[in-house]
Fold this sequence. Notes:
single chain, alpha+beta, Beta Polymerase, domain 2, Hydrophobic Seed Protein, Hypothetical protein af1432, six-stranded mixed beta sheet, two-stranded antiparallel ribbon, 26 helices, 14 strands
Amino acid sequence: MTNLTKERTKIFAPEEASSLLAKLREILTERGIDCYVVGGFVRDGLVGRQNNDIDVVVTGDATSIASHVAQTFGTKMIPLDEVNQIARVVLHQAGVHWHLDFATMRGSIEEDLRYRDFTINAIAINLSEASSGWSQVRVIDPMEGQHDIDRGVIRAVTEVSFQQDPARLLRAVRIAAMLGFSIEPDTEALMQRDHMLITTVAPERLLADLGHILETPRAYPSFRYLDRLGLIDPLMPELATARSVAQPKEHFWDVFDHSLEAVGEVEHLLLQRGDEREDDLLSSVPWTPDIARHFDQEIAGGRTRGALLKLAGLLHDIGKPVTKTVEQDGRMRFLGHASVGAVMVAKLMERLRFSNREIKMVQLMTEHHMRPGYLVGAEMPTRRAIYRYFRDAAEVGIDTLFLGLADHLAARGPTLDLDEWHKHAETVRYMLSQWFEEQTTVVPPKLIDGHTLIDKLGLTPGPQIGELLEAVREAQATGEIETAEEALDFLMKRLERNQ
Length: 499
C-alpha cells in the first residue's frame, strides 16, 4: 500500500470540538509535543457526522501528557492501559461529554496508522496544521481509508487485525451499523475465522459496542449479521440454546428466529415519527411526543429506554428452551418461561456489566412480557386490571406494552391476523390513555399511611400493614374509595371480614 497523503479537505468539527482541540494544540505546542488526531473523529468528520470521542497520538509518554492536559482543563486523567500508555481525559463542554483518548505514537505517524484496526480509522490529521480551522486540512491516509469511506466499506488493515485485538470483531459490526457501511468479503472471512476470540474480550468493552449497536436503527440486521459471522453464540450462549426450538402453530418462527424478529419489530414500532405513519400496521399504534421522549430517555452509559427495549425483544424468550414440555396430545407448553427467563436475563446482563437499573428494567420486561396480551379481550381492561398491571411492571409499564406489541408481530410474522392485531393495538392505546391522561387511576395519590393504621386501628408494625395499604391503593384506583375516611372504613370492614 502506498503512503498516500490527500489534498486538503473539509472535516466536520462542531464549534465545541474545534475550541477544545485549539486549546489542546496550544497546551501541547508549548511543550514541543507533536499531536495527531486519528481514527473515528476524522472518519466521521469526513462524512459530516459528529463524534464526541477524539483519539489522539502524541510523541512522548501519553499517560504523563494526558495527566498534564487534564490538570490544565481542570479535570482528571483516567489510565486505560498503563502498559501500552493509553489514557483518557473526560471533559464537559456545554452539557456534552467529550472523551480525549491519548496514545503514544509507535514510530512515525504513517507507521502508527498501520497498527490500527480498519482502513477507515487509519487516517490522521496533524493538529498543528489545523490552526486555521477544519475547512481545509491535510489528511494523512497511508491505507487509502478515504477511498473505503467513499465506497462505504469496512476493511481490516491486516489479516491478523482481529487476533491483535478481538474486540474489533464487535467493533466492525458496530461501525457498520452506525454508518450504514458494509464489511468487505475478505474482512468478513477473517471475522468468521477468528469469531471465537470474542470470548477473550473484557465485558466492559463488549458492552460499549453492543450498546452502540442497540442505539442505532439497524440493530435487527446487525444481530442477523452477528449470527452469520458466528458471534451470537459465544456472546450470548443463553440465546444460542433457542436455536431450532419449535413453537406451537401460532408462531411462524422457532424461538431463536422469533427472538431476532422481535428486535426488528421493536425497531419498526420505534421508528414512528409524528403523524407520518404510512404503515397500515402502525396506524392503530399510539405514538405521541410523550412516548417518543419516554424511549429517548437515557438510563445508563448513554443507553436509552429504546435500546433496552430492543435488548428485551432479543432476550424475552430465553427461558423457553429450559421450560419446554410436550404433552401426550402433542401440545407444546413453556410454563414459567417468563419468570425463568427473567433470572437468566439478569445473569447474562450482569456478565456483560450492564448497570443494576438496566438489569432490573429488562428483567421486569421479560417477566411481564405476556401480560399485555392477556389483557386483550372483548372489552377493554378494567380499572383494577390496569392498576395491577402498572403496579407490577413499575417503571417499565409503557415499555412492556410495546414489547407485547413487538412480540405479537414477531410471533405471527406473515400469518398475522389484522383484526387480532388492531384489537391488541387498541388495547394498548386505551391503557396508555389511562397512564397519560388519568394518572389517578394507575398512580393514585396517597390517602393513608402506615402510622395512621397503627394509631387508628391499633395494628402492630409488620407485613400486614403493607398488605392493607396496597388494598387501599387498589380500591382507590378502581374508584371504590376517594377519601381518607372512606379508606379507614374500607379497612375496618376488611379486618372484620377476616376475623
